[in-house]
Amino acid sequence: MSRPLPVALAQAAPQPIGAPASAFAGEVEALAAGFPQARFVVFPELHLHGAQAPPEQREAELEASAEPLDGPRSKLLAELAGDLGVWLLPGSVCERGQDGALHNTALAFSPEGRLAAWYRKVFPWRPYEPYRPGDRFVVFDVPGAGRVGFAICYDVWFPEVARQLAWMGAEVIVNPVMTTTADRAQELVLARANAIVNQVYVISVNTAAPTGTGRSLVVDPEGRVRVEAGEAATVLTDVVDLDDVTRVRRYGTAGLNRMWDQFTDADQPIELPVYQGRIDPSRWNPAGDRPEEVP
Fold first, then answer.
1. What does the alpha-carbon distance between residue 98 and residue 21 come to, in Å, rounded to a whole number?
2. Domain ranges in the chain?
3. Which pLDDT belongs to residue 56?
4. Following DSSP, what letter does each residue of 53-86 receive, concatenated?
5. Cα 81 to Cα 74: distance, rounded to the nearest angstrom
6. From the CB of residue 109, how many other CB atoms can be counted at a distance below 10 Å?
7. pTM for this one?
8. Eight-class DSSP state of 42
9. Kind of pairing, strands 115-120 and 102-109?
C-alpha cells in the first residue's frame, strides 16, 4: 500500500530582522499557491528570526523575539496552517520556556490549525548558541502517511538522535538547518548515513545564500539522494512514499541488509557502558513493529 506525502521544502533566506508576522504568512501563501499539491511544507532553522548577526548582537535579538509556545506567534502559525489546509513546519523558533530559558524549538502545525508537535534542540551548537538543551526526542503522526521525527541542525552529528527517532517509529526525519559555515558538505554525508543506518527518509532544509550555504535535500531509506538544491533560494518538491520504509526494512537495503531484524531469540543483551545501558534484542525494533505504545 502506498503512503504518499507530497512535500515542499523552502530553501529561503531568513525573514528580515523585525519583519512582521504577516510577511511570513505571505511567503507561505505564495508557496502554497505555486505548489498546490504540497501537503507538507518545511522551512529552515530559525527562519523567522532574521539573518545572522555578530555574536554580541545575536543573543539580544533572540531574547527580544522569544515567545512561549502559546504566544501570538504560534497562534498565527496555527491559523495559517489551518487556512491553507497543510502541515506547516515553519523551521525552528526561539522559544521562551516557563522558567525564562531560551530554547531552539521546531514546530509542526496540522491542517486543522493546531500545534501538533514541538521539539527543543537537544544538541545546541556550542559554544555558539545560547540555548538550553531539550530533554526529550519527539515524533508525531501524519494521518494517512506515517510518523515524523525532528532533529535540528547540529543534532544530526550525534547518531543517537536519528537512532532514537527511528526506534520511536519515525519513518522520516525532518532536519531544519541554518548552516552558514563550511561544514555543509559533511552534513550531506550525515543525512545519507542517518538514512542508511536507520532505513528512514531524511529531509534536510537549509537557509539559502547569501546567508546560508543551501544544498537542501531529500534522502530515501536506502541513502539515495532524490532531490538536492544548489545554494540559491528555491523550493524543492517531492512525493515521498513512506511505504518505502516498510519495503526496505522487509527486504533489506539493496535487497540485503535488514538491521532491524539483526537479532535472534538466542542472542544476549549487549552492554553499552558509555550509555549506562544496553541493546536488548527483545526490544531492537521500531515502535511501529512493537505491540506496545511508545512511552
1. 23
2. 4-264
3. 60
4. --HHHHHHHHHHH-B-TTSHHHHHHHHHHHHHTS
5. 11
6. 25
7. 0.94
8. E
9. antiparallel
Q: Cell numbers of 121, please?
A: 534542540
Confirm if 59 and 26 have CB atoms less than 8 A apart: no
Report the distance separating Cα 237 and Cα 233, nearest Å.
Answer: 13
Model confidence over 44-62: pLDDT tens digits? 999 998 766 655 667 777 8
Q: What sign for the dihedral angle of Cα 105, 45, 15, 26?
A: negative
Question: Please, which residues bridge with residue 201 across strands?
Answer: 172
What's the CA gap between 295 and 288, in Å, rounded? 13
Cell numbers 526526542 correspond to 137
| C-alpha cell, 52 | 545572522
Residue 264: other Cβ atoms inside 10 A: 7
Q: What are phi and psi of 29, to 5 degrees?
A: -60, -40
β-bridge partners, 41: 8, 88
Cell 507538507 found at:
40
Classified by CATH at the fold level, domain 4-264 comes out as Nitrilase/N-carbamoyl-D-aminoacid amidohydrolase (3.60.110)
